[in-house]
Every structure is written in C-alpha cells, then in structure tokens.
Automatic annotation (TrEMBL):
Name this protein carries in UniProt: glutaryl-CoA dehydrogenase (ETF)
Originating organism: Herbiconiux aconitum
Domain Acyl-CoA oxidase/dehydrogenase middle, chain residue ranges per copy: 131-222
Domain Acyl-CoA dehydrogenase/oxidase N-terminal stretches: 16-127
Membrane-crossing segments per the record: none
Signal peptide from the UniProt entry: none
Length: 388
C-alpha cells in the first residue's frame, strides 16, 4: 500500500523487515476495519468495542511488553502501529495506548506475579479491558495534589475520591487507580470495576475524540483486599513511568494524524482546478505542501530516533517531552494548513482533516500539556524547577 508522501520521504528504508511487517499489518487493519466506519462512529459518539478482539488477534495490545501473552515487539514497531492507527483516528491509538501503555504497563512494571498472571493475558487477548485513573476533576497537571484517598481498615484498603477524563472506564473490567495513603504516599490499586462503590460515567458533549470513551469515575467506599495493591509502585514515579510509555506512543501517533491530513491536501491539490489549472501548480500551494512535508519528515525522524534510543534503554523523560511537544504541535499546524488548502470542503466530513484537528486538540492536552512539557525541558536546561 503506497502512500503519496512516500514519493519523497522513504521511511521504510530505515526500518527492519519485522518493523515493516507490523507497520503494514496495522495500516491494513486501519484502512479496512476503522476508516470505513469512523465517520459514522464519530457522528454517533460510538466506541466500536467489537474491534477490540480483532486488535488483540493482530497482537497490538501491549505489544511492546514481554511475556504473559504480549508480543514482545520493539519500540519502533510499537510506534509504527500507533502511527497507522492514529492515521485512521486518534480514538484507536488512544485505546491501544490506554490498554497497553497505561493499564498493562502499570501491571507489568509494578504488579505482583499473581496480578500479572491474572490480568495481563486477558488484557493482551482483548478478553478484558483496562483503564488508568490518575487525573482528577480539579486538574491533571499537578498529580501530587491528588485528593483521592486510600485508608487502611483492618487488612483491607478503602478508596474514596473522584477521577476525571479516564479513558475506557465505563467499559473496563479492571481499573488502575492511583490514590494517596495515610502517609501521603501515592499507591496504585487494581480495582475490578464490578467492585461496589466504583462508578464510571461517560462524559457527554465532547467535540473531540468522539469515537472514544472518557469518563468521570467516583470511588465511594471501594473496599479492596491487600492483594489489590501494586507492590512495586511507591510515589509518583509509579504512574509517571506509565505516562512516559503513553507519551512515547503519541510521538508517533500524532504524526499519523498529520500524515492523513497531508495526504488529503496533497490529493486535492492535484485534482482541484482553479483558474484553469490544478491548485497544486500554484507556487503558494506548493510552498505550503513543502512546509507540511518538511515538518512531517522531521517529526517522523525524531520519532524513529527516540524509538532507537528506547530500544537501547537510553531514552530519557526529557527526550520524550521533546517528542510529544513537537509531534502534537506540528501535527496541529499541518492539519490547519491542510484545512486551508482544502478550502470550504475542508470543514466537511468529506475529508478527515477537521476530525483529526479536533482530536489533536485533546491529544495536545492529555499526557502532559504543551506547557508541562516546556517546563520539563526548562528544568533540564536550567536545573531550576518552575512548576509552582
């Protein structure tokens, strides 16, 4: 399946055969199973849960993890899958991210052997869905200020509090809940969503990520056994290690949305005629297309570089912040430029551009806003924290 962008930019030459296989399978899945239905799903705010076992059958769920039924693929292969799924719609890269990079990674990194054995194979097979509840209603950028509490009651733990913008919570079978204990230490808990006191309510009225589910979660006296605690998670480093996995996927995914917008604009520039010639023959249009290609190419090369660093175990949180900040920012600009080249048609569902543009506004906010990633980089540059 040849893309128009490949006429100039040959990323495939930098990939291994195995990576190209993952890429092509994800591209085929996206074009055959997601693209034909995504406009209807967005219009109806419908999460097509029937695709979950199909994604699992392809090996995409938790694919970067090893053991417990996960595929054990490399970081670049995982990034390429994120790229192809988000080229169809951000909702499906988000699903793979929440399931694999957040819920499964939390269990894989911080869980007991019993927790891993119980949950990871089910999640990898798509027989169970997971969610990851960190953000709270008062804001997500300051998780140290969380108010959700976990108190001891005999041998049990009891959770009380609220979370917001929690992906998949209303369809999840297990939730990774982050709460502060009586010593003010952030702890992780595995909460089956059938537990009394756990309530997830989908957030209505979204103008972005409409084919996905984000929820308000209420925890009202949720009683858990001691085996619910993630034993390897103590403090904010627990959720942050998972967030960095998700942020890495966004570096690739946002460029997938950008590619889809660029392809739409390029195809239209070749066929739409104004003043007796295709608009692609006009200097200003060619200049805009060239600028879009350059930023896309730079974003993809950065993603590939970060992937190779990750595979060597050398990727730092600051480098991930560079990637997340750049990819989303440039993807939004490419989407805006594509919308302009499409003229009035660019605001219709005849083209995917406005859908991607709306989704990218959410991607810009979650897993760290632009401002938070700038502060992470500012601290790395100056040695001075400026978060408060």
């Amino acid at each position: 399946m040849t893309l128009l962008v490949d006429t100039v930019f040959d990323l495939d030459a930098l990939l291994t055969d195995e990576e190209r296989d993952w890429q092509q399978r994800a591209r085929a899945f996206a074009s055959e199973r997601i693209v034909p239905v995504i406009d209807d799903d967005v219009e109806n705010e419908y999460f097509r849960q029937s695709l979950v076992p199909e994604l699992a059958a392809e090996g995409f769920l938790g694919m970067h993890l090893t053991g417990y039924g996960a595929a054990g693929a490399g970081a670049v292969a995982y990034g390429l899958v994120c790229h192809e799924l988000e080229a169809a719609d951000s909702a499906w890269r988000t699903f793979v991210s929440v399931q694999g990079s957040l819920a499964m990674s939390a269990i894989h990194k911080h869980g007991s052997e019993e927790q891993k054995t119980e949950w990871l194979p089910q999640l990898a097979r798509g027989e169970a869905i997971g969610c990851f509840a960190l953000t709270e209603p008062a804001g997500g950028s300051d998780p140290a200020a969380m108010t959700t509490r976990a108190r001891r009651d005999g041998d049990d733990w009891v959770l009380d509090g609220a979370k917001r913008w929690i992906g998949l919570a209303s369809v999840a079978d297990v939730a990774v809940i982050w709460a502060k204990d009586d010593d003010e230490v952030v702890r992780g808990f595995l909460v089956p969503t059938s537990t009394p006191g756990f309530t997830a309510t989908p957030i209505a009225g979204k103008l972005s990520m409409r084919a996905s589910i984000q929820c308000d979660v209420l925890l009202d006296g949720v009683r858990l056994p001691p085996t619910a605690v993630l034993p390897g998670a103590h403090g904010l480093s627990g959720p942050f290690t998972c967030l960095n996995e998700a942020r890495y996927g966004i570096v690739w995914g946002a460029m997938g949305a950008a590619r889809s917008c660029f392809e739409a604009a390029l195809g239209r520039a070749r066929t739409r005629e104004v003043f007796g010639a295709p608009i692609g023959a006009r200097q200003l249009v060619q200049g805009a297309l060239a600028d879009m290609l350059v930023e896309y190419e730079k974003g993809m090369l950065l993603a590939l570089h970060l992937g190779r660093l990750k595979e060597r175990g050398a990727l730092t949180p600051e480098q991930i912040s560079v990637g997340k900040l750049n990819s989303v920012r440039e993807a939004l600009q490419i989407a805006r430029d594509a919308r302009a080249l499409l003229g009035g048609d660019g605001v219709t569902s005849d083209y995917p551009v406005m859908r991607h543009l709306a989704n990218l506004e959410s991607v810009r906010t979650y897993e760290g806003t632009d401002e938070i990633h700038k502060l992470i980089l500012g601290r790395a540059l100056t040695g001075l924290p400026a978060f408060s």
